[in-house]
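User: Quick sanity check before I run a bigger batch. Here is a single chain. Can you write out its predicted 3D structure?
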Amino acid sequence: MKVDVKDLAGKVVETLELKSKAFNVDVNENLLHQVYVAQYANQRHSKAHTKTRGEIQGSTKKPWKQKGTGRARTGDVKNPIWRSGGTVFGPRSNRNYSQKINKKEARLATIMALVSKIKEDQLVVVRDYNLKEVKASLMAKVVDKLKLAGKTLMVFDKDGKKYMRASQNLSQISNLDVEKLNVLDILNNKYIVVNEAGMKFLDKKYSK
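Assistant: Done. Predicted structure follows.
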């Protein structure tokens, strides 16, 4: 598979041939969906929390004696049946939404997600992020010249990390280290921008 390499002005300057045979894979939408849902679930944290009768404040004294009053028997005011009592089977903050992901499936799904972006011309490879200054205004001009109209993920290798700050405050632009690239971030963005060194890193990584 081959991808075009552009300069920051949006002009094609060379063609990069991916040596890894992994990029010749057919896209399996079912696998992509499975891994996407699992990664999304693994980021989820439960915030809703209800208190049981053992956690709410209130007296533990028996309101009235067991027999002889004509009223229903009850133990304390924290009874779940009573108003302001404890909650039974309510949502708890310790609920675990995580799902297990097979490493081989996650790796294959990431490759498939990249291949789908390449086939749809939504993966943009730039020669480098060599801006004159690390400024958002200069990165905004790069985004315009590359014609990135939509949510965009900019991927940086270790040498290009210093330019992350230039795109942090741009709307619809998010940043990610190339070593942490995953299905969730790829599919949540319309365009993926990666420098040539980062693309070669991915090529080498998935060729193993």
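The CA atoms of residues 129 and 160 lie 6 Å apart.

User: Great, the batch can go ahead then.
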